């Protein structure tokens, strides 16, 4: 059975008219899955994606430019889930909360990623920049930064 929510915008006087909405997370799990190995967690394709296809959304709490998160309140691990981007000024998305969303678990691959994040709205979406085959890890380039794991390459 599909994981659904009742559409609260419908009248409760006529329950037969209530619409059901498929949760985006449930729909995403038909196409990608979480995998854990010695390198940690990652997201892997279950179906083929063609160049330009939407893969998934990087979700979290949006901090507008006038109230950025206080980085010192985050642990080193939590801080890796903060994503700075441009939308009506510099904004930040905090995806440090374990909420079952998979976008926050897509790993960095700066030399040959298969996805990129398109921003410009308060939604950060990963799109395939080349074909992705089933079983392949979904990755994107975290940007120009000095991440500790890049020193090991």
UniProtKB/TrEMBL annotation:
Residues 18-143 form the SET domain. SMART domains: SET. GO terms for cellular component: nucleus; polytene chromosome. PROSITE patterns: SET. It holds the Pfam family SET. It comes from the Eukaryota. InterPro entries: KMT5A, SET_dom, SET_dom_sf. GO terms for molecular function: histone H4K20 methyltransferase activity. One of its GO terms (biological process) is regulation of transcription by RNA polymerase II. PANTHER family: N-LYSINE METHYLTRANSFERASE KMT5A (PTHR46167). This is SET domain-containing protein. It comes from Sphaeramia orbicularis.
């Amino acid at each position: 059975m599909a994981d659904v929510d009742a559409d609260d915008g419908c009248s409760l006087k006529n329950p037969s008219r209530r619409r059901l909405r498929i949760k985006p997370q449930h729909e995403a799990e038909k196409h990608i899955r979480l995998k854990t190995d010695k390198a940690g967690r990652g997201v892997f394709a279950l179906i083929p994606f063609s160049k330009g296809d939407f893969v998934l959304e990087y979700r979290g709490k949006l901090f507008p430019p006038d109230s950025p998160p206080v980085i010192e309140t985050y642990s080193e691990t939590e801080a890796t889930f903060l994503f700075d981007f441009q939308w009506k000024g510099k904004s930040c998305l905090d995806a440090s909360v374990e909420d079952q969303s998979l976008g926050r678990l897509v790993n960095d691959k700066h030399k040959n990623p298969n996805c990129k994040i398109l921003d410009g709205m308060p939604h950060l979406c990963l799109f395939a920049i080349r074909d992705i085959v089933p079983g392949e890890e979904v990755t994107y380039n975290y940007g120009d930064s000095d991440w500790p794991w890049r020193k090991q390459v």
